[in-house]
Amino acid sequence: MVNFEVNIFYKYTPVLDPKSFTKWIKQLCEHVGIKGRILIASEGINGTVEGTREQLDLFELEVRKARFGNFHDIWFKTSPGTGRTFKKLRVKARKNILNAGLEKDIDPNQVTGKHIEAEKLHEWFLHGEDFTIVDMRNDFEHAVGRFTGSIDPGMATFRDLPTVAPNLEHLKNKKVLTVCTYGVRCEKASGYLLQQGFQQVYQLHGGIGTYMKKYPGQHFEGSLYVFDERMTEQFTKNYTIIGVCTGCGGHSERFGNCAWHECHKQLIICESCSIQPMWCSQTCRGLTQ
After folding, report:
1. What is the pLDDT of residue 103?
2. Catalytic-role residue among 29, 180, 245, 270
C-alpha cells in the first residue's frame, strides 16, 4: 500500500526572478511526479503539494537548493494524504503570495508579530496566561474548528483585514495571539496590527496545524479546514463536530457553496440539505430567484 503525505510550506523572502522560478518549480514537480498548488511572487513562496515520502524528500531537497532565493531553511509541515488531495498541479506567479487588501502591503521581513512555538502556547493555556487569541482565518474556517475562546473578527476573505481591524480596538493594550492554519496569514496580519498601534502582538509559529500535531484534542474544538480536496483535517478520533449546517442547524463539517453563481461563498451544508439550493444570505437568495 502506497502512503501519501501532504506538504504545506511558505517563506517570505525576496525572489530574484519570480517567472523563472515559477517555470523551474513547475518542471521540478512534474519531474518528481507530485500535484498541488504553489504561488510565487517577488515576496516569496506559498504552497501545498502531495506525494509519497520519497517524492517529497526529493522535492524538499531541490527547493532548499534553489538559486532563486534564500530557501535553505524553508519549513515543510507534513500531514497525512489520500493520494487524491489535488486533482492537478497549479503553479502560478502572482503579485503577492497573500493578498491582504492593503494600500501598502506588509513585508513580514520588516514588521511582524513575535513568534511563539506550540510549546509556549501550551504553557500559556496550562498556566492561565492573560491573552486573547484572534483567529485570522476566514469565518467559515473558524466555524468548523477553532481554539476554545478565540475571537472571530468576521473575515469572509483575508482581504477583509483592514475592514475588521477596528473591531479589535479594545485589544490594543492587551496581549494578542494571532493564529491561522499554518502561519502564512499571521505573518502579515500580526504586522498589520502592530502598524495599527497594537502593543503586544504575537503569532503562533507553524499555525494551528503544528499545535494540533503536538497536542491533539487539547484547547481546540472541531476540525481544521484545509484548502484542498480533503476539506478538513482531524488530529484525533475523539473529537466533536461543531460546525452548524446552514440549512437545518444540525452539526456537520461538510462544505458546499452558496447557490448564487457569482458568490459561491463556502457554507457548511450537511448531506441531507445538499440536495436543495443553499444561500449565504437573503440577498444572494433574491438574486438567484
Report:
1. 66
2. 180
Q: What is the pTM of this model?
A: 0.92
Of the CA atoms within 13 Å of residue 199, those in its CB half-sphere come to 8
Task: Give the DSSP letter of residue 121.
Answer: H
Angstrom distance (rounded) from CA 220 to CA 212: 8
Residue 288: the pLDDT is: 82
Containing 283, the helix (H) or strand (E) segment is helix 282-288
Three cell numbers, residue 244: 452548524
Length of the chain: 289
180 is known as an active-site residue:
yes
Q: Give, in order, the Cα–Cα distances in Å from 6 to each of 113, 180, 181, 273.
A: 27, 18, 14, 31
Question: For residue 176, is pLDDT > 70?
Answer: yes
In whole angstroms, what is the distance from residue 85 CA to residue 82 CA? 6
Which of 179, 138, 177 shows the shortest CA–CA distance to 155? 138
Provide mean pLDDT across the span 45-54. 98
Residue 237 gets which letter from DSSP?
S
Are the CB atoms for 279 and 260 separated by under 8 Å? yes
C-alpha–C-alpha distance, residues 154 and 190, integer Å: 16
